[in-house]
Specification:
Oligomer: single chain
Strand order of the largest sheet: 2-3-1-4-5-7-6
Structural class: alpha+beta
CATH class of the largest domain: Alpha Beta
Number of strands: 7
Largest sheet: 7 strands, mixed
Number of helices: 8
CATH architecture of the largest domain: 2-Layer Sandwich
CATH superfamily of the largest domain: Nucleotide cyclase, GGDEF domain
Shape: globular
Radius of gyration: 19 Å
Helix content: 40-55%
Order of helices and strands: HHHEHHEEHEHEHEE
CATH topology of the largest domain: Alpha-Beta Plaits
């Protein structure tokens, strides 16, 4: 009985800490959103600067996601944070069915999931204030590389990202750029290790059964990846084709929620073949 009470207490404490982190991040990002909106309002008439089509204001989009996350935590209870960020994002996508058709002309889309390995333990060791600062640096890196490689952040939840690309090579090069940046500047990013999984899907229509399977495939591959690793499905590897991106030999694995075995490969980060 004492052990059960201890477990419940730990879960409740973890939930409260996560809620505090989400609310703290949302306040910071809301301030950034207001600053950006003031800047746009005060911009002189005739200013010809334009944002890349399809890329929404970063601060506004991110704070909206964060506030939704905090609200979901309050509504659904604080047991949820025990699941990984990738699990939460995949569950959200299967329910909400985000419309990704607008980013692709042929019905195919590349899905990327990522999160920080051991994020709960890192949060506990750093404390909430330092963890929030680290999370903001990590999230800014992801957002910047996604924009530079023509991707679209479908949703960001805590340290987890669900990202979509129209081009398979762009998805891999973006992921490589993220990993190389983290390796090149461990002091700035406190030595965090990010897990990334990528899958090229064959359908993005909301009502198509393949949508849920593609989301599950990308998420399960990300769960399988180790920190600092990029794992891709066989479909993604085939779609990349002759893009001069190096892969290790594929291995057959069983993925939770998917029947049979799946072939996955690790991207070679040490190779300079792929121009980032």
């Amino acid at each position: 009985m004492d052990i059960a009470l201890l477990v419940i207490t730990l879960i409740l404490s973890a939930g409260l800490i996560t809620l505090g982190v989400l609310l703290t991040v949302s306040r910071r990002q809301l301030a950034n959103a207001r600053k950006e909106l003031r800047h746009k309002r005060d911009r002189p008439p005739g200013d010809g600067r334009r944002r890349r089509p399809g890329v929404a204001p970063l601060a506004v989009r991110t704070v909206t996601h964060t506030l939704r996350n905090a609200d979901a935590l309050i509504r659904h209870g604080i047991v949820g944070p025990v699941r990984s960020s990738v699990d939460e994002l995949a569950a959200w996508a299967r329910v909400e069915r985000p419309d990704l058709a607008r980013i692709t002309s042929d019905g195919r889309v590349v899905l990327v999931f990522s999160d920080i390995e051991g994020s709960t333990q890192r949060n506990e060791s750093l404390g909430d204030r330092e963890w929030v600062k680290l999370l903001e640096r990590h999230n800014a890196l992801i957002q910047r590389q996604v924009a530079d490689h023509h991707g679209y952040v479908v949703k960001n939840q805590g340290d987890g990202f669900m990202i979509a690309f129209a081009d398979p090579a762009d998805a891999v090069r973006c992921s490589m750029a993220i990993q190389r940046t983290l390796l090149a500047d461990p002091a700035r990013y406190d030595g965090i290790r990010v897990r990334i999984g990528i899958h090229a899907g064959t359908s993005v229509r909301r009502g198509d059964d393949l949508f849920g399977r593609n989301v599950a495939m990308a998420a399960r591959i990300a769960d399988l990846a180790a920190g600092g690793q990029i794992l891709v499905s066989d479909e993604l590897r085939t779609a990349v084709g002759g893009a001069n991106i190096g892969f290790d030999e594929p291995v057959e694995v069983e993925l939770k929620g998917l029947s049979g075995t799946q072939s996955v490969s690790s991207v070679r980060l040490t190779s300079r073949d792929a121009e980032i």
